[in-house]
Amino acid sequence: MNPHVRKNRELWDEWTEINVRSAFYDVAGWKATGRGLDPEVREALGDLTGASVLHLQCHFGLDTLRLAQLAAHVTGVDLSPRAIAHARALSAETGITARFIESDVYALPEVLGERFDVVFSSYGAIEWLPDLGRWAELVARYLKPGGRLVLVEGHPTMWMFDSDHPTELRVATTYFHGPQPIEILPTVGNYADPTAVVTAPAYSWIHDLAEIVTAVLGANLRLTALREYAHIVWKAFPFLVETAPGRWEQPPEQPRIPLMFALVATRPK
Ligand SMILES: C[S@@+](CC[C@H](N)C(=O)[O-])C[C@H]1O[C@@H](n2cnc3c(N)ncnc32)[C@H](O)[C@@H]1O
Q: In sequence order, which residues have a C-beta less than 8 Å from that of residue 73 and are 6 or more positions away?
């Protein structure tokens, strides 16, 4: 295992315990209302009736269980033992059936051999992967001929801007990052809870849009949709305005940047 990915496993065990109790994920609200997948995700996924789905980097399984309500079989994979333990507990508690596998994405072929109609990943997933070319090869390996990759993510442009600036977009860093990880030292707060005490460092990799698309095309997948959104489904900057439940936009007087994208690519038959 990549040594930075190994360190990230400690981080994600810690973050999982924060996230599963957070208002950000609102597990209790989901249990009460059964709120489904975001419309952008539903549109990118298309019809899942009868489909087998592989959910990569499934975290503690909330979206995996939402997928399981639409598809025939869903398998969630995550690096974090704590995330997988919570996912299995949530599945047992709610009676929504899904299979969960604890694995580094890159080591998945050691434990999983079958193929799927859909490989899905979303929201803060690929930034934890050091090598997108290898990731795309793995995705292609897990797709049946005619199957599709569905990736819905924060837009790489967004990472250029200071996520703490209270009123407007301020460029904080470059759009282009090399292969070296960005190290974030232990701090108070994570994306789901600004008050949580975190003891593990984080290592992430910012992949620009050309790198993402090139990885997908390099794995011989055919790009069938690429959408950029001027809104996002979480409050990525303090000044974003919630214009509908779970839909965050820049104030109308500000110039817009893409905040989220959805990519669909098909494995040729
Ligand atoms: C931000 S979460 C994804 C959130 C998820 N889309 C959701 O809706 O809950 C990122 C997840 O990626 C997992 N992860 C990070 N690196 C990984 C790797 N190399 N292999 C598998 N999972 C990984 C983490 O454990 C974490 O659960």
A: 52, 53, 99
Distance CA 91, CA 146 (A): 29
Give me 136's structure tokens.
Answer: 């795309």
- The closest residue, in CA terms, to atom 1 on ligand 1 is 124
Number of domains in the chain: 1
- Percent of the chain exceeding pLDDT 70 equals 100
CATH of the domain at 79: 3.40.50.150
Q: What is the mean pLDDT of residues 149-154?
A: 98
The residue to mutate among 21, 79, 151, 205, having the most atoms of ligand 1 within 8 angstroms of its beta carbon, is 79
pLDDT of residue 150: 98
Give the 3-state secondary structure of 205-253.
CCCCHHHHHHHHHHCCCEEEEEEEECEECCCCCCCCEEEECCEEECCCC
Q: What residue numbers bound the domain in which 229 lies? A: 3-266
Q: Which residues line ligand 1 (CB under 6 A)?
A: 5, 8, 12, 57, 59, 62-63, 78-80, 83, 104-105, 122-125, 128-129
Give yes or no for a contact between 15 and 198, defined as CB atoms under 8 angstroms apart: yes
Span 79-132, pLDDT tens digits? 999 999 999 999 999 999 999 999 999 999 999 999 999 999 999 999 999 999
Residue 79 CA, ligand 1 centroid: distance in Å: 7
Amino acid at 253: E
Mean pLDDT of 178-191: 87
How many angstroms separate the CA atoms of 72 and 51, rounded? Answer: 5
Give the chain's length: 269
